[in-house]
UniProtKB/TrEMBL annotation, chain A:
Entry annotated with the keyword Heme: no
Protein name: Origin recognition complex subunit
InterPro entries reported in the protein's UniProt record: ORC3 (IPR020795), ORC3_N (IPR045667), ORC_WH_C (IPR040855)
Any coiled-coil regions, as ranges: none
Subcellular location: Nucleus
A GO MF label: DNA replication origin binding
Chain intervals with Basic and acidic residues compositional bias: 25-34
Keywords from the named record: DNA replication, DNA-binding, Nucleus
UniProt GO cellular component terms: DNA replication preinitiation complex; nuclear origin of replication recognition complex; nuclear pre-replicative complex
UniProt keyword Transmembrane helix, yes or no: no
Native species: Paraphaeosphaeria minitans
Segments for region (Disordered): 10-34
Residue intervals of the Origin recognition complex subunit 3 winged helix C-terminal domain: 561-683
Family membership noted in the UniProt record: Belongs to the ORC3 family.
Automatic annotation (TrEMBL), chain B:
Subunit composition and interactions: Component of the origin recognition complex (ORC).
Segments of this protein annotated with the region Disordered: 1-201, 486-511
Species name: Paraphaeosphaeria minitans
Location within or outside the cell: Nucleus
Origin recognition complex subunit 2 winged-helix domain mapped to chain residues: 511-570
Name of the featured protein: Origin recognition complex subunit 2
Biased composition range(s): Polar residues: 33-42, 68-98
One Pfam family named in its UniProt record: WHD_ORC2
GO biological process, one term: regulation of DNA-templated transcription
Record family assignment: Belongs to the ORC2 family.
Biased composition (Acidic residues): 122-134
Keyword vocabulary terms for this entry: DNA replication, Nucleus
Keyword Repressor: no
GO molecular function annotations of the record: DNA replication origin binding
Length: 686, 584
């Protein structure tokens, strides 16, 4: 089976029922797993719904425009078309999200207009002929291949009155198809216009133009750079054949932010994603992938890991009953660090009674957990709301620099926000806000708040309104802290400059307004200080927040090279054997007991850019045989009691294999500089 | 280049300018040595001429450097000097200079050289080198005085006289470049400082790639060292790795993750396993595991249906995309339907039929070594990606090379939806690679493929006389070429690298190191009446090609070269046999 190229797996007869691996430990590590996964799928389904709706909403505006454009450019009988309607879709540099975008766009166009829609990528169109073949196949949705085409097309075309048979890249096929399936327009979307050969694009435009009187083409170009650079690539003649309109797609940055708001920072989210993980996902987005799909995958994987690995997550079950849980689950809770802390606090407070009950009675613990989970959830969701409120305040006051919700939120979730300069700065600028802005701010907060969060904003709004209505002056009311109400006076007394601040006299209304601002400020402050708790101090934090970097990073951002280098440079890290153990004083030592490839690799590391295989062999031989001798004296391995020559043969074979493996891994290549030399290709750690 | 420049400088400004003074301590004798080595052969020749014509500049410099170096001088080489010069030197700036120079602290020295390097940008490389060697020498000379002799000899060989003051009339100690070079190389090797440890990776890269930094021995492997297939497999069969238990433990460790992997696959992710060691054991074990798992699941349970799993061994030579797609299609599409022939239409056909009538469980595609050379083409990878992106296909693949993620751009990566797992096994790549073949290839011994000399003799016996004669000519020519190249093995066909020009021996490169030029061979063959026309010549060569007795390659200039893939010793023996045979 190993040497077969490809095959459909079928179990060998003798191992048709491979013995299930025996679990030696009493407790099944997967106890309650299916239960937890059920909770997972339910939770994730909700999240996914949010994600989908957010994505659709994000596209909707531009997609609507594009669909309208396509619909508006449907050919009419009376007006002859003089150019191909062309949509330039500037979809941004995140090419990974272009595919899904054009797919969604296609759905939209097909739904709304009676059009045929095909997406073509550069991979499918190395030249015009292939491009046309693919196009024709896609439009007419024929499944045919070269052999059949003779009979099939030949027959169908020959039998028609059209005379000579058409070649398989003749747009006549499309014409024939449209005569059978009348469509409003044929939308051809070029997904990655940058990757197309310019000549192909130019020829394509030419050809489409010449068919325009018979086939209602509409072109859509996906553009990752800019419409200008796209135009630059085409000939003036081709440009004259096109009638372009530009559409800007929401950039993935913004979509990610929206997704973030809808998922991670959403108050109803459960479980929450912790700040570290969240930062990591965002950083990866920013630096590497820029792809909404990937963001969603990261989120999904976080949920998966949380429910898969954390036994205690079973308590996230909806309307759970006590009998649903096994004693193990309660043990899991009792082992949570936050729970231990909670117990210790209780002990310090002298509440031994309840401590005893918590530790011994599952029933009691269950009741406590039930209540606690709700409290903690509320705390977490008010944390999210507070982050949203803060962002909203900054948005409505127009405070620079702009800080995205994702940033604010992850700070809040790590418990850093309360004492942060960000919050202080925001609060200070509230004090200075004039009335018109404050009114807007309060309005937006009211619109935001799903429940009143202790601001009593509506009352403030009412008071503010009456105050503003009474305001006779032209400008907005200003609070006492507004800088315009301050002036700095410079006096020179005895050759010394004195600076003194003077408050301008406040009008009655300004005073009243200042009072409102002060109240608003106070309420907001107390709100923030109550809402912005450090989630890590919350009990059962581990259940409700998933904040582990470990599987996430490795799984999405692997470092395969590092893994291989480490395996070869310090095999002990993986093997954990006694023979090649690291001595404490040195990082890694070459030992003859190590796997042959590891030894050769370490020798390789020490050598220069060109390596003499002979010397490598001598060094290898010296290391290995020395060790063998030691071993033989200790008579540890019976195998090595064989003859010396056999040993050398083994060493030779091992060396050969090690060298071959290094070559296979791409670490060395043949060198022509000298006989029997190999060139080094990789430097460790680079 | 550098040397010419320096010469000019030296001639123009005497040692009086401070810049010069600073230069010289840094470039001690070794520097001048390395400088000599830097030159390309042609330059070298000119340089020699110049030196002989106007030798004073270089000599002065080296003299100063030598004085600076202050190592005890052996008197042996004094024969090269004219005593008068020595005397004049002693008189002019004799001992006080030496004492003063010897007193100079290492710190000042290094500072100077640093400054110097920044000032003379173009000399920097040499200076760096010189500094390195100077440092090494300093360290060495501290405790091993005995070893300095070698060095002194060499130094003297070059300078001929300790510190000449008015060196203009004195000839160079060593008239010939070759001898000096050999000496220099020898001395240098001994003086080579042990590689600095604890360098950061990038520094290590530059250190190891520094010009002239590569000094390797000329040892070659004896033909007994490398085993042939039979010996290799015989030996490996009796070999028991002492790490078997640990490796088994690693496998066991990975097997604990099976249910996690199944969960991940079920959630629509694909899995990629990486790490050192063959991962076939894991994939085959996991395949069996998931097969059982699927057999116990809803669609298959209680029925005769079996789960569909496709295994693709990417490492097998000449596995093609067509094979992959055909196997996948055979798993999901009922037999009897005609499949499209073209790859792209086959792919769309598969995807369409999966979309139209999705299988009860996603089809699992297991690819061993997705990064193998056979599957590295972008078309293959993009096709696999679009397969993997389909919700009805699950992909589990392994990747062996360290840099495999470079196969995929952001778009492909997004399509693949990979989760990566480190699955280091330390298992030998016993099926993936053929060590004997690879090593032979690596060391340019592909001739072993046809069974060595015996094989060639066998083939030749079955060929007509003129073919044998032609082969003899090739072998003779190749041996001749090898002899002409002997002594400077490090000659490359493409002397592009800096190190190359430095190492180059002054002797003009004898064409190239490898093989015989096609044209020349043809003429030779015609002269010996082996063949009359090029067509006949080609026909004869084709026979050799077919039996892999010769290889043809283009060198950097694009000239075709023919090469019998054996080393010189073997060629000699081969030639002997050929001549013997002809005698009969």
């Amino acid at each position: 089976m190993d040497t077969k190229k490809c095959y459909v797996y079928a179990p060998l007869e003798q191992e048709s029922r491979p013995s299930k691996r025996q679990r030696t430990s009493k407790s099944d590590p997967h106890a309650g797993l299916s239960e937890r996964l059920k909770i997972y799928s339910k939770t994730w389904a909700e999240q996914e719904k949010k994600v989908q709706s957010t994505l659709e909403e994000a596209d909707r505006a531009t997609q609507g425009k594009i669909v309208d454009f396509v619909a508006a450019n449907a050919p009419s009988e009376d007006v002859p078309r003089i150019s191909i309607p062309t949509g330039l879709i500037v979809a941004g540099p995140s090419i990974a999200s272009h595919g899904p975008y054009f797919e969604r766009l296609g759905r939209g166009i097909r739904d709304v207009t009676n059009s045929s829609y095909v997406v073509l990528t550069s991979g499918e169109s190395p030249n015009l002929k292939t491009f046309l073949k693919t196009l024709i196949n896609k439009i007419t949705s024929r499944v045919e291949d070269d052999d059949d085409e003779e009979d099939e097309i030949g027959r169908s075309v020959n039998s028609s009155v059209r005379g000579p048979k058409l070649l398989n890249f003749d747009l006549g096929h499309v014409q024939e198809w449209t005569s059978r399936n009348p469509v409003q327009s044929i939308v051809v979307a070029i997904q990655d216009s940058e990757a197309f050969n310019t000549a192909v694009l130019i020829e394509m435009v030419d050809l489409f133009y010449s068919w325009l009187d018979r086939l209602p083409f509409v072109l859509l170009f996906g553009i990752a750079t800019s419409a200008e650079s796209f135009e630059d690539r085409l000939l003036g003649k081709s440009l004259r054949y096109l009638d372009g309109q530009q559409f800007d797609v929401t950039q993935s940055d913004d979509i990610i932010e929206k997704l973030f708001r809808a998922t991670i920072a959403h108050p109803d989210t459960e479980p929450h994603i912790g700040p570290n993980l969240c930062r990591r996902i965002l950083e990866r987005q920013k630096d590497h992938v820029q792809n909404t799909q990937d963001f969603v995958h990261g989120l999904k994987y976080a949920y998966m890991s949380h429910f898969y690995a954390n036994h205690a997550t079973i308590f996230l079950k909806y309307d759970a009953k006590f009998k649903d849980f096994s004693p193990d689950a309660f043990e899991a809770i009792r082992n949570l660090p936050s729970f231990r802390r909670y117990i210790e606090e209780k002990l310090e407070a002298g509440d031994t009674q309840s401590v005893r009950q918590l530790l011994s009675s599952d029933k009691f613990l269950f009741e406590v957990i039930e209540k606690l989970i709700v409290t903690v959830q509320n705390a977490l969701s008010s944390l999210s709301i507070a982050a949203i409120v803060l962002t909203r305040i900054r948005e409505s006051l127009g405070i620079t620099p702009k800080v995205r919700l994702s940033n604010v939120w992850s700070r809040a979730a790590s418990g850093e926000l309360l004492d942060s300069p960000l919050l202080r700065e925001t609060m200070l600028s509230i004090k200075k806000t004039p009335s018109d802005r404050l009114a807007r701010l309060i309005d937006s907060l009211i619109s935001l708040a799903t429940e009143d969060f202790g601001l009593d904003a509506e009352q403030l709004q009412r008071e503010l309104k009456t105050l503003v209505q009474d305001n006779a002056g032209s400008g907005p009311l200003r609070s006492q802290d507004d800088i315009r109400n301050e002036s700095v006076r410079t006096t020179v007394v005895a050759q010394k400059v004195l600076l003194s601040k003077h408050k301008a006299a406040l009008s009655e209304q300004d005073k009243a307004y200042s009072e409102i601002v002060a109240r608003f400020y106070q309420r907001l402050e107390s709100y923030f200080s109550s809402a912005l708790v450090d989630p890590k101090t919350l009990l059962l934090y581990e259940i409700l927040v998933y904040n582990l970097k470990s599987p996430h990073t490795e799984v999405f951002q692997p470092r395969p090279r590092l893994a291989i280098e480490r395996a070869l440079a310090t095999p002990h890290d993986y093997l954990g054997c006694e023979c090649c153990g690291n001595t404490p004083d040195r990082e890694n030592t070459l030992a003859g007991t190590q796997p042959a490839t590891a030894i050769v690799y370490q020798l390789y590391l020490e050598s220069g850019a060109v390596i003499n295989a002979t010397d490598l062999w001598f060094a290898f031989h010296a290391i290995v045989s020395k060790d063998d001798e030691e071993d033989q004296s200790q008579t540890m391995y019976v195998m090595q009691m064989s003859t010396i020559s056999n040993d050398t043969d083994h060493t030779r074979a091992l060396f050969q294999r090690a060298l071959a493996e290094l070559k296979f891994l791409g670490l060395i290549k043949p060198s022509r500089k000298k006989a029997d030399h190999v060139a080094k290709m990789m430097w460790k750690g680079l | 280049m550098t040397s010419a420049k320096r010469k000019r400088d030296d001639q123009g400004a005497e040692d009086t300018t401070p810049r010069k003074l600073r230069t010289q301590p840094a470039e001690d004798e070794n520097d001048s040595l390395s400088e000599l080595q830097v030159q390309t052969p042609s330059r070298r020749g000119r340089g020699l001429l110049e030196e002989n014509g106007t030798p004073r500049s270089i000599l002065k410099k080296s003299g100063l450097a030598n004085e600076f170096n202050a190592t005890p001088k052996s008197n042996r080489r004094l024969t090269f000097t004219t005593p008068t010069k020595a005397a004049s030197k002693e008189a002019s700036n004799g001992t006080p200079t030496i004492v003063r120079n010897a007193d100079r602290s290492a710190r000042r020295k290094s500072n100077r050289s640093l400054i110097d390097r920044t000032i003379n940008g173009e000399d920097s490389e040499d200076a760096a080198l010189g500094e390195e060697d100077a440092l090494a020498q300093q360290i060495l000379s501290e405790d091993e005085d005995g070893q300095t002799e070698e060095r002194d000899k060499e130094a003297d060989a070059q300078e001929a006289i300790p510190v000449p003051d008015t060196p203009s009339k004195r000839p160079r100690g060593r008239p010939k470049g070759t001898g000096k070079n050999q000496l220099a190389a020898k001395a240098r090797k001994e003086r080579e400082p042990s590689p600095p440890t604890e360098l950061p990776a990038q520094e290590q890269y530059f250190w190891q790639n520094r010009p002239g930094g590569n000094k390797t021995s000329n040892n070659t492997l004896t033909s007994q060292t490398l085993l042939n297939h039979d010996e290799y497999f015989d030996t490996m069969q009796s070999y028991v790795d002492r790490h078997e238990p640990e490796k088994a433990f690693l496998l066991e460790l990975h097997s604990r993750a099976y249910s996690q992997w199944i969960f991940e696959l079920e959630e629509g992710f694909n899995i990629c396993l990486y790490g050192y060691g063959s991962k076939r054991a894991i994939t085959s074990d996991f395949t069996a595991h998931i097969y059982q798992h699927l057999l116990d699941q809803a669609p298959c349970k209680g029925t005769t249906k079996t789960p569909k799993i496709v295994v693709i061994n990417g490492y097998t030579p000449n596995v093609t995309l067509k094979d992959v797609l055909a196997t996948i299609a055979s798993a999901i599409i009922p037999k009897g339907l005609k499949l499209p022939n073209q790859l792209s239409s086959l792919l769309t056909y598969i995807l369409d039929s999966l979309a139209r009538d999705p299988p009860p469980h996603p089809l699992l595609v297991v690819i061993n070594s997705i990064d193998s050379a056979n599957l590295r083409k972008s078309l293959v990878q993009s096709t696999l990606a679009s397969l993997a992106a389909h919700p009805s296909i699950n992909l589990l693949c392994t990747a062996d090379t360290p840099n495999f993620p470079l196969l995929w751009d952001v778009g492909l990566r997004a399509q693949f939806r990979f989760l990566f797992h480190d699955a280091t096994t330390f298992a030998p790549y016993s099926v993936e690679i053929d060590p004997v073949e690879i090593v032979n290839d690596l060391l340019g011994r592909s001739g072993r493929r046809i069974g060595g000399r015996d094989g060639i003799g066998f083939v030749l016996r079955s060929l007509p006389l003129n073919a044998r004669a032609l082969f003899r000519i090739i072998v003779t020519e190749q041996i001749k070429a090898a002899y002409m190249d002997d002594g400077d093995h490090d000659e490359d066909e493409a002397p592009t690298a800096m190190s190359q020009s430095k190492k180059n021996a002054p002797r003009a490169p004898a064409g190239s190191s490898q093989g015989v030029v096609y044209r020349r061979l043809f003429h030779k063959a015609r002269d010996e009446f082996v063949c009359t026309s090029e067509v006949a010549f080609r026909t004869l060569l084709k026979e050799f090609h077919d039996h892999q007795m010769i290889e043809s390659k283009k060198d950097a200039m694009g000239t075709e070269r023919l090469l019998v893939p054996f080393r010189t010793e073997e060629l000699q023996m081969l030639l002997e046999e050929l001549l013997l045979e002809n005698a009969f």
